[in-house]
Design brief:
Blueprint: E1 9-20, E2 23-30, H1 33-38, E3 46-51, E4 55-60, E5 71-76, H2 80-87, E6 93-100, E7 113-119, H3 123-135, E8 143-149, H4 158-166, E9 171-176, E10 188-189, H5 192-199, E11 206-211, H6 214-226, E12 234-237, E13 253-254, E14 257-258, H7 259-262, E15 265-267, H8 268-272
Parallel strand pairs: 7-8, 7-11, 8-9, 9-10, 11-12
Antiparallel strand pairs: 1-2, 1-6, 2-5, 3-4, 3-6, 12-15, 13-14
Helix pairs in contact: 5-6
The structure holds FE2/S2 (inorganic) cluster.
FE2/S2 (inorganic) cluster (FES) binds next to loops.
Length: 278
Amino acid sequence: MEQNIYFPYLMRIEKIIDETPDVKTFRLQFQNEDEGRQFTFKAGQFGEYSVMGEGESTFCIASSPTRKDYIECTYRRMGRVTSALARCEEGDTIGFRGPYGNIFPIDEWKDKNLLFIAGGIALPPMRCVIWNCLDLRQNYRNVTIIYGARTVKDLVYKHELKEWGERSDVKLITTVDPGGETADWKGEIGFVPTILEKSAPASENTVAVVCGPPIMIKYTFPVLEKLGFSENNIYTTLENRMKCGLGKCGRCNVGNVYVCKDGPVFTYKQLKQLPAEY
Ligand code: FES
């Protein structure tokens, strides 16, 4: 019998990490071990996460495909489904459909420098591709991560930021908006585009990946262009307004493009060709 495409995998919440007061990470394991063994995905893809009786919500897969046996997602509590997710406890079961969407072409990035620029809660889609590339570290040259949030308490993955900051093969720059620092804050103070311009990473042979709030992305792209990055070497990921994830509901389309099928990963060049509404 043909499998219903809307039928979710049943996932057990193995671990819950409180990232900030309203952001949590779930580590999820397939209840059916065979399904878990057969499941594969690539960096950049997303899924639909569901709580019975409440509905579904779209998030990227935040863990790396190189880490087997589980997937992780990170979400902010802001609506009905995410509030229901936030009430879940370790051991509870939720649904997951996916993986959907296109991917970051990390095989094409071999022997290049990588520059990851993220803001706020948009680090999760970046975290997947960062860990994927760090687990294949020999394939890439310099790796730089610039991550900013409104305040120190809004920084997610604090334990991993510490780990990346201690690695000799990663350059990590963290920043918070002016006024968001604490007395013992050792990172930068300033908006992400400003800190990017100040740190001026080399654009030659470098791929930039940008994820963040629309306003951050809007001001970051011109800085990258000013630094010499070509629009083909700048990538981002969109998650807006998705529902089915399968190109069927028509909710995610921008012009002729379906974000769920043609994206969510786009180059800056591709974004420039979309209608301004994205
Ligand atoms: S989310 Fe339904 S068509 Fe894209």
